[in-house]
Amino acid sequence: MDVISVIRTKRDRGELSPEQIDWVIDAYTRGVVADEQMSALAMAILLNGMNRAEIARWTAAMIASGERMDFSSLSRPTADKHSTGGVGDKITLPLAPLVAACGAAVPQLSGRGLGHTGGTLDKLESIPGWRALLSNEEMLNVLDTTGAVICAAGDGLAPADKKLYALRDVTGTVEAIPLIASSIMSKKIAEGTGSLVLDVKVGSGAFMKNIEDARELARTMVGLGTDSGVKTVALLTDMSTPLGLTAGNALEVRESVEVLAGGGPADVVELTIALAREMLDAAGVKDADPAKALADGSAMDVWRRMIAAQGGDPDAKLPVAREQHVVTASASGVLTRLDAYGVGVAAWRLGAGRARKEDPVQAGAGIELHAKPGDSVVAGQPLMTLHTDTPEKFEYALASLEGVYDVAAAGTDFTAAPIVLDRIA
Ligand code: URA
């Protein structure tokens, strides 16, 4: 087998054979195929696509590049959730303990933020003492004793994807649907969950800007999961405006705790409950009521145990940024648009996110929103509060907030987009 013939096959719109796929993934992981050769192949895939059989084989080869985890010793069925990423998307934080409180086990391998979307591990690391890095044994132990664990994926899980994702990031090849689907699903299948709910975000703050691309990505991932024996369902959800009222690490933890205490913004509560119902249904847990588990404190009990089991202090005061800057409404009327992408970039520029993998993040940095689309606003009232430890960042963050919102005359009819746009099973 030689790599140039594999690249030429895809360059010329051919179908890669199973042998070509197995070989190229293995050879790339071992360093026999060079980065520049894999980038040429990734670009050929981005331009010419892959069919269902090719995507399935590509995913299987990435799974085979590393270890597979096994949760069969647990007494409960497992359910996991994966979001394609958005602004203010803190849903994993209340969702994992909620689903555990309702009877499923939730092994949640999560990532860090890169660019304008936040990462679950960065958010949880704002809790003093909390540890993202667990051994496989510790992970199983936390899962067994509390019902939920949120931690970093170990280096042994789909190493081919780790290498390929880093390469795609710097070669303009992230956006290929076959590569996104196989990247996400290889990690989820290798993780060993019995069922999986995908939250595929659509809108300005998401990877997928339009619903047709999001449907194609969702169908591809649901097909891959189902073919591998993982019960997989996808919800397509709105990411045209930030979720909830906060974007930033400690700010989002605070809001998640409000949801677990039975309060919190309506959109965060609605999506958390919708995803919990799907996860419990996919895991085969009957007669559970996630809304009740939020209201009666049982989800909060699991959260406290889960945070403590990973070294965190659930009662510790969360970090607060040293400096604040308030942005006020420029006109009176109805807020009809608040753009997720602009708010996400501003939160990132304030220090909540990172530009390179190795950059640190500020726990207290981010944005608090004081109004959402559909709310009435009065000229001069606070619309957002910007938080950072480094005030020289305000100017740069404010530049990305130029034109992010519209205010229409009072009385204008406005209906917010529904949170859940479609369901694919
Ligand atoms: N998330 C992943 O894990 N992989 C992708 O390719 C895109 C998003």
UniProtKB/TrEMBL annotation:
The record's annotation in InterPro entries points to: Glycosyl_Trfase_fam3, Glycosyl_Trfase_fam3_N_dom, Glycosyl_Trfase_fam3_N_dom_sf, Nuc_phospho_transferase, PYNP-like_C_sf, PYNP_C, Pyrmidine_PPas_bac/euk, Pyrmidine_PPase_CS
* Reactions catalysed: thymidine + phosphate = 2-deoxy-alpha-D-ribose 1-phosphate + thymine
What are the alphabetically sorted keywords of the record?
Glycosyltransferase, Transferase
Entry superkingdom: Bacteria
Where does the Pyrimidine nucleoside phosphorylase C-terminal domain lie?
Answer: 334-408
Any GO MF annotation of the entry? 1,4-alpha-oligoglucan phosphorylase activity
Cellular component GO terms, alphabetical: cytosol
The record ties this protein, via Pfam families, to: Glycos_trans_3N, Glycos_transf_3, PYNP_C
Q: Top-level EC class, please?
A: transferase
Q: Record's family?
A: Belongs to the thymidine/pyrimidine-nucleoside phosphorylase family.
Describe its function: The enzymes which catalyze the reversible phosphorolysis of pyrimidine nucleosides are involved in the degradation of these compounds and in their utilization as carbon and energy sources, or in the rescue of pyrimidine bases for nucleotide synthesis.
PANTHER family under this entry? Answer: THYMIDINE PHOSPHORYLASE
Please state what the protein is called: Thymidine phosphorylase
Species this chain originates from: Streptomyces venezuelae
The lineage is: Bacteria, Bacillati, Actinomycetota, Actinomycetes, Kitasatosporales
